[in-house]
């Protein structure tokens, strides 16, 4: 039995802050297209992330670095059109906010104007503070993202757990507080020790959304294709899979192919 959605009011920045205050956990999931976004919205997710993970799961790239702003906007438009209740957050792709803060603001404005999304997300702490402040100044809600920030994979040298040592944990904590202070509406904590996430979460006035960061966060996010079992080779420790859709798709399509080859589809009631 799934979750019963009891209210259909649009989820907003104010609402997710209230959910934190009330101790109500926030469920976020990624989507990149109209059909899936409509389904996850009906299932009751509070937030949909149009993640730059689209670069991996939709385009087959090894990293998130190669996806473009134009491509993200196409995915974002389709998701925003489908999401009636969930708050839609758009990832700003690599290279669209790390330089000139005015350019970052212009890119965020373009995302909001062309997609109809509700907020943008960008990776990093103090190094992107000015960009975040400029985007906030335009009235655009910003979700921060700390810990494992996949756009920096080449700097990190891999996708391992971040902030394991004291110095990096201290920088992480300072960055999280700063993102809250300057006005981010939520912060994603990716792949950090659960104890660190649990210690920092109550210090922030806005929700923390974890992925591989333990149960102490105010909410959780997973990539749709991973949690539904479509990304069959991907089994990190933090991932819970709720279905085996990959196997089911192969099985269903295999049955269709067999029927076509055997002349068993269409039958007499399946034509005009
Ligand atoms: O792009 C993405 O899907 C993300 C989540 C993993 C948080 O940033």
Structure explained in plain terms:
- By secondary structure, the chain is an alpha/beta fold.
- It contains eleven helices and eight strands.
- The model has no long low-confidence stretch (mean pLDDT 98).
- α2 (34-42) packs across α4, α4 runs parallel beside α5 (101-115) and α5 (101-115) packs across α6 (129-137).
- An eight-stranded parallel β-barrel has the order 1-2-3-4-5-6-7-8, surrounded by six helices.
- The longest helix has 18 residues, at 245-262.
- The protein has helices spanning 13-22, 34-42, 54-57, 69-82, 101-115, 129-137, 153-156, 166-182, 194-200, 224-227, 245-262, and strands at 26-30, 47-50, 87-91, 119-121, 142-147, 186-190, 208-211, 219-222.
- β3, α5 and β4 form a beta-alpha-beta unit.
- The structure holds 3-methyl-2-oxobutanoic acid (KIV).
Decide which structural class fits the backbone.
Answer: alpha/beta
Radius of gyration: 20 Å
Bound molecules: 3-methyl-2-oxobutanoic acid
Which outline best applies?
A: globular
Measured by DSSP, the beta-strand proportion falls in 5-15%
Biggest pleated-sheet summary:
8 strands, parallel, barrel
Mean pLDDT, all residues: 98
Q: Residue share in helices?
A: 40-55%
Low-confidence stretches: none
The tally of beta strands, per DSSP, is 8
Q: Strands of the biggest beta sheet: in what spatial order?
A: 1-2-3-4-5-6-7-8
The number of helical elements comes to 11
Distance between the termini: 39 Å
